[in-house]
Amino acid sequence: MKSFNYEAKAIRVLFGQSTISQVNAEAARAGVARALVLSTSNQSDEASRVAGYLGPVHASTFTGAAMHTPEDVTERALEIARSVRADGIVAVGGSSTIGLGKAIAIRTGLPQIVLPTTYAGSEMTAILGETRNGVKATRSDPRVVPKVVIYDVDLTLGLPVGISASSGLNAIAHAAEALYAREGNPIISLMAEEGIATLSRSLPAIVARPDDLEARSDALYGAWLCGTCLGSVGMALHHKVCHTLGGTFNLPHAETHAIVLPHVLAFNAPSVPEAMQRMARALCAADAIQGLNALCTRLGIARSLHEIGMPEEGIARAAELVVSNAYWNPRLVDRAQAVEIIQRAWHGHTAQ
Ligand code: NAD
């Protein structure tokens, strides 16, 4: 018998098509009468649509959200929130925009309604990463958990194919590490397996036909499951390597995950045979790593850290950072092994 603890987060989730139209009713339900809408500058059209649906509840819009939640951006958004006496946040976008909403929430206690448009999964977690003076720090705090998440598949139809593929791999990475997490439990493992299976089927269909509604809907459902995994159990070596590389060399978040994942899983595989079996089953493959390699090839994503701008001389420094402040991992990793993993990913070797 295996003992476990399981704690669900109290997040209200709406899932479907045209669910954006329910944002006004959800604001009323959450007690929000003066909402500040957040987006990146790329997604100002989506922000306008949300504002339109909010009607009189829309107090103002801030379209300056940026990757890695820089503190000066949060300060600017806070100024607007205060000047319009906002009593709630409505974030529409990827996990960068959601991160800004969380950064405001932790400083003000304002409730958040979130409409995710990528597969990264921040909407389901209590994790907040912020950048101050160029240094990114991550903390976990229940105050940043959104009150309501509105998944509207329409908002994902325009997500470019390349970002869809890498963002989907980012989601699969959450589920993969959940399958062997120290705090793992049967409920989260079910979600992880279903999340990987759903994404591995839907992502190739999206690459072939980006506006395929069924595939988009499946991918968003898979992303929700994988985000729930990320928000429920601790992550291990893969997330540590990706946070280190992203933070040290300013590499693109989702692509870094997509490139590194097969290499870390290949390293961990001997220590976690059951997790690898479940992953292989989810990928409809005889072997998890081969299945993952095949999926990456079908999706046409970048395969080497070299391609996305990591300097080769950074490998040793990154490996040092990975082992000096290590996350728990099912297999102990020393400096030489960390170098080898990052080196293989840098060259774009096939993981095995
Ligand atoms: P992102 O939010 O940075 O978005 C990337 C770009 O794509 C942005 O310009 C955005 O406006 C655009 N975009 C997003 N959705 C779009 C759509 N549907 N159509 C067209 N353009 C769209 O990317 P991301 O991968 O979602 O987020 C990455 C960031 O989130 C990183 O900083 C990462 O550390 C953080 N993150 C945090 C958590 C957490 O739990 N705190 C989880 C995952 C990721």
Provide the fold topology.
Elements: E1 12-16, H1 23-29, E2 35-38, H2 44-54, E3 58-62, H3 71-83, E4 88-93, H4 95-108, E5 112-116, E6 127-132, E7 135-140, E8 148-152, H5 161-179, H6 186-208, H7 213-232, H8 237-249, H9 253-268, H10 273-282, H11 288-299, H12 315-324, H13 335-347
Parallel strand pairs: 1-8, 2-3, 2-4, 4-5, 5-8
Antiparallel strand pairs: 6-7
Bound molecules: nicotinamide-adenine-dinucleotide.
Nicotinamide-adenine-dinucleotide binds next to helix 4, strand 6, helix 5 and helix 9.
Ions, cofactors, ligands: which are bound?
nicotinamide-adenine-dinucleotide
For the record, give the distance between the C-alpha atoms at the N and C termini, rounded to a whole number.
Answer: 32 Å
- In CATH, what is the homologous superfamily of the largest domain? Dehydroquinate synthase-like - alpha domain
Mean pLDDT metric: 96
Provide the succession of SSEs. Answer: EHEHEHEHEEEEHHHHHHHHH
Strand content: 5-15%
The secondary structure category is: alpha/beta
The CATH architecture term of the largest domain is: Up-down Bundle
Number of strands: 8
Going across the major beta sheet, what is the strand order?
Answer: 1-8-5-4-2-3
| Main beta-sheet strand count, sense and barrel state | 6 strands, parallel
Give the number of domains: 2
Quick one: CATH class of the largest domain? Mainly Alpha
Radius of gyration based on Cα positions: 20 Å
